[in-house]
Amino acid sequence: MDTILILDYGSQYTQLIARRVRELGVYTDIAPGEAALTPERLAGVKGIVMAGSPSSVYDEGAPVPDQSVYTLGLPVLGICYGAQRMTRDHGGSVATLPDREYGRRPVKVTACDPLFEGVPPEFTSWMSHGDSIEALAPGFVAVAMTDNGIPAAIAHESLPLRGVQFHPEVTHCEHGSRILANFALGICGCDRSWTMERYIDEEREALRARVGSAPVLLLISGGVDSTVAAALLLKTLGPERVHLLYIDTGLMRKDESAEVMRTLNALGAAHVHRADAEPDFLAALSGVSEPEEKRRIIGDMFITVQQREVERLGLGEDYFLAQGTLYTDLIESGKGVGKKAHVIKSHHNVRSPLVEKKRAEGRVVEPLDRLYKDEVRALGRVLGVDEAVVSRHPFPGPGLGVRVLGEVTKEKCDTLRAADDIYLAELRARGLYDRIWQAFAVLLPVRSVGVAGDVRRYGWTVALRAVASTDGMTADVFEFPMKDLLAISAIITNRVPAVGRVVYDVSSKPPATIEWE
Ligand code: XMP
User: Fold this and answer.
1) Cβ(342) – ligand 1 distance below 6 Å
2) CA 317: distance to chain centroid?
3) Which residue of 154, 379, 402, 433 pairs with 428 in a disulfide if CB–CB is 3.0 to 4.6 A?
4) Closest by Cα among 373, 368, 382 to 203
5) So what's the pLDDT on residue 36?
6) Domains in the chain: how many in total?
7) Average pLDDT per 10 consecutive residues for the chain, totaling 517 residues
8) Per-residue model confidence (pLDDT) at position 350
9) Pair 282, 410: CB distance under 8 Å
10) In this predicted structure, what is the pLDDT of residue 351?
11) H-state helical runs in 314-370
């Protein structure tokens, strides 16, 4: 498949470039910036992006690409550090700016270049750099300038090498998408062959070849990834060979386990095994209130129950284990999203001896491992997964275990479940759910005095959280319409007698995290 290879030098924007190009229908692969450009690495590659970096080209140990990148004959686009690296590697110079350029900046296109086809001669770009090209390298010309006389874009006179010092991948950059399209589709000549239909065909073929006639076990969390993975497996291998294991921890939201079962049945699953482990989890958590200790206990209990239930299923030794791992979990030199996602999922994906054993046997299949989260959602839609599941907010592995602050008891979980259910139902009814990246209620270990009728009430405090984010790495507080907030608070305190007070969390991430524990 036609691919744009992105060389990653550690910029927070690398993932964004990959996603923006994929939105054009062109597959992107991310490789460590210093990776050798071997024929295997270059299979299908029609163009290369050298991305940004927190380093300066003058730093000791600043990352350097395999120098063959410039002589392969493939079009190359350097973005920010990538453009400065290209300049330096060809004998030009880069200097530190007296003031870091950050934010919107006018750009004037000064020469005819296919990178700017269809782009007006003046537009507003998005800059974020502390270094800048000082003297162009021999053979390069500036094809666009910023208003303060800095080359905004450069191109080589005879080789297919280009660079921009602004960030076309950032949505604030006017015509950024057009510039990326001019590169990927126009200059590199990529087909728009990255479609979910094509992904399904390729993955189905790969799965059949890999798994043969063996059974496949998939652990279901109830979230988008494992549900879409289940849909793909069922569609490819049929219901008889696909075994789905769902561990009900008792830390799920209201009616969630029943909904998970309904979704799997609707997808045609024949072997769904639901393990009721609520007593195990609650007993292990009894008397424990320290957050990390709770997480560790929940993670360990997952493993214990997983081993027990897999033995109970009696699938023999030859079965494959399927996982809903995403592209962001895999990126080798992953910075930001990739690295974080890896840590977040540790108790599901990495530490589990079951996964390690199957991996050592070469019997793990990960049919979503080339996809970003938004692409998993698109895939789910093509596969007919219910929209309510596909567009669901993320839910952490330890579930209500980290949303009942302090000691976790069944009674507290029930109280939180009731409040959270009202909150989410109201968000849906008020058309707010899809405007929010993640919303949930938290039960604080704080009781306060109130009145109900003429009676004094001593009730728990519920905190409501709603954040806007793109990947959970950073988050802004959702600007809740006050009238909705007041109405939801009143409904919760009316309908859940154990709750006496509702507060709204107005902390962004950083410095807070999205979850409270
Ligand atoms: P924080 O609280 O770190 O959360 O800002 C960022 C995102 O990750 C989710 N999260 C988890 N997901 N297991 C998971 O599968 C976990 O232990 C875990 N902790 C946090 C959180 O819900 C948010 O979407």
Assistant:
1) no
2) 33
3) 433
4) 368
5) 96
6) 3
7) 95 89 95 95 98 93 96 98 98 92 92 97 93 97 94 98 96 94 98 94 95 96 94 96 97 96 96 97 98 94 94 95 86 38 38 87 94 93 95 94 98 98 98 97 96 88 95 88 98 96 95 94
8) 44
9) yes
10) 65
11) 327-330, 337-344, 346-349, 353-360
* 396 C-alpha to ligand 1 centroid (Å): 5
- Host domain of residue 442: 403-504
What is the residue with the minimal CA distance to atom 4 of ligand 1?
A: 514
User: To test ligand 1's pocket by mutation, which of 437, 514, 516 has the most ligand atoms within 8 angstroms of CB?
Assistant: 514
pLDDT at position 333 is 32
Final residue belonging to a domain, choices 350, 368, 390: 390
Q: What is the pLDDT of residue 347?
A: 37
Residue 331 is predicted with a pLDDT of 56
Predicted local distance difference test score (pLDDT) of residue 40 = 96
Which atom, in ligand 1's list, is nearest to the CA of 473? 6
Q: What distance in angstroms lies between residue 79's CA and the mean position of ligand 1's atoms?
A: 31
Report how far ligand 1's centroid is from the alpha carbon of 58 (Å). Answer: 37
Residue 509 Cβ inside 6 Å of ligand 1? The answer reads yes
A 10 A CB-CB count for 264 gives 25
Examine residue 342 and state whether it is found in any structural domain, yes or no.
yes
**Domain match, 382 and 428 both:** no
pLDDT of 150 reads 92
d(CA 76, ligand 1 centre) in Å: 37
Q: Atom 10 in ligand 1: which residue has the minimum CA distance?
A: 396
Amino acid code (one letter) for 391: S
CB-CB neighbours of 326 under 10 Å: 23
CATH number at residue 408: 3.30.300.10
Question: Do 82 and 151 reside in the same domain of the chain?
Answer: yes
* E-state strands within 230-387: 242-248, 271-276, 320-322, 364-365
Q: Which atom of ligand 1 is nearest to the CA of 513?
A: 5
Q: Is 394 in the pocket of ligand 1 (CB under 6 A)?
A: yes
Cβ of residue 514 lying under 6 Å from some atom of ligand 1: yes
Decide which of 165, 187, 209 is a domain's last residue: 187
Is 247 among the domain residues?
Answer: yes
Q: Which atom of ligand 1 is nearest to the CA of 516?
A: 2
- Any ligand 1 atom below 6 A from CB of 324: no
d(CA 231, CA 1) in angstroms, rounded, equals 24
Residue 233 sits in the same domain as residue 130: no
Question: Tokens 């990834």 sit at which residue?
Answer: 225
